Amino acid sequence: MTASTNRKPIKNPGSIFSNIHALIQQSKNILIVISRPVDPDTVGTAFALEWLLTLASKQVHVVSFTRIPSNMADFPCIRRVDAAGTDSFSFSPYNLIILIDGSSWDQFFGRNWKQTLKKFPASKIINLDHHDPGQIQMAVPERCLVAETSSTAQLLFDYFIRPFNLKLPPEIAHYLYLALLYDTRMFKNEMFPGMYLFAHDLLTLGADHLKAVDKSYDLKEIDFTVWAVEHTEFIPALQLTMLVIDAGLNIELQKKLGENWMDFDGLYKETIERQIKGYNYGIILIDNMDGTIRFGWRTRNFGNYISIAEVAHRAGFSAGGHRNAGGGSFDGTIEHAKTSFLQEIRRALNIET
Ligand SMILES: [Mn+2]
After folding, report:
1. C-alpha of residue 321 to centroid of ligand 1, in Å
2. 229 and 209, same structural domain?
3. Do the Cβ atoms of 261 and 253 come closer than 8 Å?
4. Which of 23, 274, 314, 343 could be bridged to 298 by S-S, CB 3.0 to 4.6 A?
């Protein structure tokens, strides 16, 4: 995902980097964990880090404790990710556990993250990320290299690769280029210092631009978009599009597009949720049918708009990510989630109920 503008800078990134660098040097066996959502940034960065650590004679294992979505099936090297479950996984062989491109524990360890965290000491954790600081940074601040960059890929390059003059192989440069294009929506998001220099360096190293921008959608993306547009509420007074998928509609989508129908919502999110004139906010609420509601949003990048994450927090949701794109959850019914969100967005926009 992409990044925000109003956050505190980390106090001393240089000393955090030195700390992390020293920990890596002392370690022999290293586990790299990719985050949910599994996207080109987390996967590309994980394998660039794997390459780097292998060069330094470390034993490295890249694992995902979250399902790999079908829209990542074409990502090169995706088959090299070990999809594991946290229950049976043995963390003890590893000296370090490096978490890539996420700020909350459940993004790495799933719903039962509390149980998983009991399996190893916090002193094994390292986090590399570019999201708004969250739970992990609160817990182990001196082990989190979190900076406002275009992508975690750029963070890795700026700290671990460029200063050491390492020559990435073309395929690894290409992974990082895919990560950069994905997280910046092909440079449509905010400008970050060094972003274009990073792109230039990757192209010089052999990333293939035309191959990277050759995007094609699964037909199911179209099916979902058509279905979703018909089920979207357009609320002009709140500048809001809202798609509410209750239990019945969730089952309908499972029958129509399969159990993992949520893999096909990318086109809808990109277009309807933030590119319709007059509708500056787009949200989706989904009944998970387990007493929790899944929440996601998109917001325009340009202009002075309210923060959907703050509105959601006040409405009782957990929410994280970036100002212009993020997700979270709500404990309770979908009706309650909807009512509560609408009440808070009205309040934030100063609209009388
Ligand atoms: Mn990212």
Report:
1. 9
2. no
3. yes
4. 274
**How far away, in angstroms, is 1 Cα from ligand 1 center?**
5
Integer Rg of the chain from CA: 20
Same domain, 283 and 340: yes
Q: Is 5 helix (H, G, I), strand (E, B) or coil?
A: coil
For ligand 1, the distance from its centroid to the CA atom of residue 101, given in whole angstroms, is 5
**Which contiguous run of DSSP H or E holds residue 74?**
none
Q: How far is the CA of 238 from the centre of ligand 1 (A)?
A: 29
Max CA-CA distance within the chain?
A: 63
User: What range does the domain containing 237 cover?
Assistant: 219-348
Q: pTM of this prediction?
A: 0.90
Structurally, the chain folds into a number of domains equal to: 2
**For 198-248, what is each residue's pLDDT tens digit?**
999 999 999 999 999 998 899 999 999 999 999 999 999 999 999 999 999
* Residue 206 located in a structural domain: yes
Q: In the Cβ-directed half-sphere of 239, how many Cα atoms lie within 13 Å?
A: 18
Residues 31 and 168 in one domain: yes
